[in-house]
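Hi, does anyone understand the following?
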Amino acid sequence: MSTAQSAGARALANVRLQWLQTLRDTLSEYHSILMSSEDEHPDADEAANAKTKEKAEADHRRLAYLGTQLDLLLNQKKKYQQALWKVSDDILNMKTKNERQAADERLVVAARETLDFHWRKIKAEILSNEPLREPPSS
């Protein structure tokens, strides 16, 4: 591999690594909010309900932003990325904290598969190995 090709491969690997870091950070915050958001309690007093509602509104706005980030970062035509997007969207639409927490492992597994695949892809590009191709979605 020529010096120019090697430099180009390293530059591309750096761009992919930045994408991977952004995806990981976005997912971490998204996951944290989804797993910790409290449900409203009908038995709670008015002040507690107001506080819960205020936090829920802030969480909703932040989740909307993070969800948009994920929509833009993930390619729905790629198998691992599509699976990650689907489970993250499914969890977002669940009504209770218990439901979200029950689906936690699905999100973590999908995230690990996506992050691991792309980390291996970056390493292959840096080492000038045959580039890995993510399977298309089914």
Notes: Helices lie at 3-36, 46-73, 79-92, 97-102, 104-126.
